[in-house]
Write a structure and sequence with these properties.
Structural class: alpha+beta
Strand order of the largest sheet: 3-2-1-6-11
Number of strands: 18
Order of helices and strands: EEEEEHEEHEEEHEHHEEEHHEEHHEHEHH
Number of helices: 12
Strand content: 25-35%
Largest sheet: 5 strands, mixed
Oligomer: single chain
């Protein structure tokens, strides 16, 4: 087993249905070259939250082994994603009066302000995971980057991503027990957004909808920064469960039906033939029409879309349906459902497209990862590459706020 090269980084996606590890590097054109890949079924995770520690450790270990075997390089450190029911967010602003208003604002002043935010008192059991600067005000002027400007009053506005300490510990323990070092945690929909959204979409306003197995993650962007994130406790597995219960068939048959002949709407079904499904316990075989299957799928999708629209309408933007000019971008395994785009457009009245991680990948992807299924994993690898590059640049200089957050997260994990 070879040693991990210094220019390689790794991202770890612990999902409800799969665990994926990507090992890669940045090529001279700034694209990601995937060097190693490992994927296995995710056991011990429900709705994005670890529910069985031993099973989760085993799943990570299996994915780790496959990643190593795929390239002969040992993975020792990963940046992981966190999502699920134990994630929350809030808006926060802080101000300072500068003693030398005629002197240009420097980067260290922004870091000092963020360092103060890290000291905020949260609700019991909560921990700040990400501090995302949104915009600043220098006296009466609003700006995205105040460095170099002069002024007396400096105000910073942040989007804070919060996680439950228990959830952080559980993720951290799983990774440590898998003989890995955790370089950092980031919110999964933020990672997905870097993989599938364009800068123009983030500026014009867009709602990212990541339909996973157990949950649907939402991240809303406007003017280049995140305005809102939320988690809906419904995903692709619930659609499968609806099919299973409606037609009284095995879960694996329901999943196969959904993937092979399922449609997001009966309107798009032109072939109304019956699919014959074997049953169990001596019961008669079941005949299921493709149109009836589509009706079940569409009913669940309508409920998911209702929850998404609630989050859009309460994201803090004025007339969000109109201000989100770039509409909705779907990603995650659930977005592969046939005819899902026109269904979203019909019920939301917003332009919709499927998001792929194409723009980050080098185009020489031997693992065939240019799919919505791997948007989060590719995004996490991208974050890991950015993180590792920033860490190498810091060297012996004074720590940046991101390093301070890493230290706090590391302390929590080490307390298990």
């Amino acid at each position: 087993m070879g040693k991990r090269k210094t220019n390689l980084s790794a991202g770890l996606d612990i999902g409800t249905t799969k665990v994926a590890i990507l090992l890669g590097k940045r090529n001279p054109n700034g694209k990601i070259e995937i060097v190693g890949f490992g994927k296995t079924e995710s056991l011990g995770v429900q709705n994005g939250v670890i529910s069985d520690m031993n099973q989760s450790i085993s799943s990570i270990g299996n994915a780790l082994q496959k990643a190593t075997e795929s390239c002969g390089i040992e993975v020792k450190e990963v940046l992981a994603g966190i999502a699920g029911q134990y994630i929350d967010s809030l808006q926060h602003s802080t101000s300072k009066k500068r003693s030398k208003p005629d002197k240009a604002i420097e980067e260290y002043e922004l870091n000092q302000m963020i360092n103060e935010v890290t000291k905020l008192t949260m609700q019991p059991g909560d921990q700040i995971l990400n501090i995302l600067p949104q915009h600043y005000q220098v006296d009466d002027q609003t700006t995205m980057n105040p460095v170099g400007l002069c002024g007396t009053d400096l105000t910073a506005n942040y989007h804070l991503v919060l996680g439950k300490i228990a959830a952080i510990k559980n993720v951290g323990r799983c990774i440590l027990e898998s003989k890995l070092k955790l370089s950092g945690l980031t919110l999964e929909p933020l990672a997905s957004s870097t993989a599938v959204l364009t800068d123009l979409e983030r500026h014009n306003g867009v709602c990212l909808v990541d339909i996973g197995g157990g949950t649907t993650d939402i991240a809303i962007f406007k003017d280049g920064f995140i305005r809102h994130n939320a988690v809906i406790a419904m995903g692709g597995m619930l659609i499968t469960k609806d099919i299973q219960e409606e037609f009284k068939i095995l879960n694996r048959h329901a999943e196969a039906l959904k993937k092979k002949v399922g449609s997001a709407t009966k309107v798009a079904v032109r072939d109304n033939r019956n699919i014959v499904i074997p049953t169990f316990g001596g019961r008669k075989e079941v005949k299921i029409s493709i149109k009836a299957l589509a009706e079940v799928i569409e009913e669940r999708l309508k409920k998911i879309i209702q929850e998404i629209m609630y989050e859009i309408q309460h994201c803090g933007l004025e007339k969000p349906e109109k201000s989100l000019i770039s509409g909705i971008v779907l990603t995650g395994g659930g977005s592969l459902l046939n005819h899902i785009v026109p269904v979203f457009e019909y019920y939301t009245k917003m332009e919709t497209r499927i998001g792929l991680p194409s723009h980050l990948l080098s185009g020489q992807d031997k693992f065939d990862l240019d799919s919505p299924i791997y948007s989060t994993a590719v995004g996490l690898l991208n974050e890991a590459l950015i993180h590792d590059q920033a860490k190498s640049r810091r060297g012996r200089r004074k720590k940046h706020y991101s390093a301070m957050l890493e230290d706090r997260i590391s302390q929590i994990i080490e307390q298990v």
